[in-house]
């Protein structure tokens, strides 16, 4: 079985409070973009999980989200057959684009079919939550309001198709460290989630771009000023709006046309290796070829 596992961006991300379990309550609008890893899944007779990948930057053992997804399903439902998973990595690693989470979502969806488990999407989402907060959204895809730690997913009207330029600086960002460094009482600018939802429903790209906001950005920018440099270059090349996605360090800009996006990409190539011009897309976060 061959699956496309799509990346996501956060159009708006607010952090409301810290929970007793150490996680944070958030409200975020996630959006699928047309950038995907390719996941090949093959059933094997041996009772084992074998993960291989095209990237040297991700683990292939039980630290890999796809491995964890397979292990959870096998253990929970008593599956004695094994699985071979190959990940063709196209989504930048540790970027805030849910690359690991979407791979896990693809494995959950694929193994549900291969092993004929007949689990509903809701059941898969509940299992996905145990792997990572973004996995439930990655199973749903499209445009959605996500709450709780991100696992409560409310599907919204699809956002209009937009030109998205993604740039990932060569720095490592720890999601946990970013959340721990965030002082919620000192957040100066919060996203207007309702205004963003209205802009999406109206299909108003300029208003969507105007309302881009991520409260985690201030924390990550403080550690890595290169993020502001990326944003400045995008803005100086006619980006309608630009913001960091997730805990970073990837930044994306919304552009009114591909020409301006390509101009920005040329300027960014001087100091950024991973640059991707793509679009937003509708539908599931995981699709079969």
From TrEMBL:
Known EC number: 2.7.1.148
GHMP kinase N-terminal domain span: 64-142
Catalytic residue positions: 8, 134
Domain named GHMP kinase C-terminal: residues: 196-268
Listed pathway(s): Isoprenoid biosynthesis; isopentenyl diphosphate biosynthesis via DXP pathway; isopentenyl diphosphate from 1-deoxy-D-xylulose 5-phosphate: step 3/6
Annotated keywords: ATP-binding, Isoprene biosynthesis, Kinase, Nucleotide-binding, Transferase
Entry-linked InterPro entries: GHMP_kinase_C_dom, GHMP_kinase_C_sf, GHMP_kinase_N_dom, IspE, Ribosomal_Su5_D2-typ_SF, Ribsml_uS5_D2-typ_fold_subgr
A Pfam family matched in the record: GHMP_kinases_N
Recorded catalytic activity of this chain's protein: 4-CDP-2-C-methyl-D-erythritol + ATP = 4-CDP-2-C-methyl-D-erythritol 2-phosphate + ADP + H(+)
Keyword field contains ATP-binding: yes
Residues binding ATP, per UniProt: 92-102
GO annotation (BP), single: isopentenyl diphosphate biosynthetic process, methylerythritol 4-phosphate pathway
Gene Ontology molecular function: 4-(cytidine 5'-diphospho)-2-C-methyl-D-erythritol kinase activity; ATP binding
Enzyme's top EC category: transferase
Family of this protein: Belongs to the GHMP kinase family. IspE subfamily.
Function: Catalyzes the phosphorylation of the position 2 hydroxy group of 4-diphosphocytidyl-2C-methyl-D-erythritol.
HAMAP family (alphabetical): IspE
Protein name: 4-diphosphocytidyl-2-C-methyl-D-erythritol kinase
Naturally occurring in which organism (per UniProt): Caldicellulosiruptor kronotskyensis (strain DSM 18902 / VKM B-2412 / 2002)
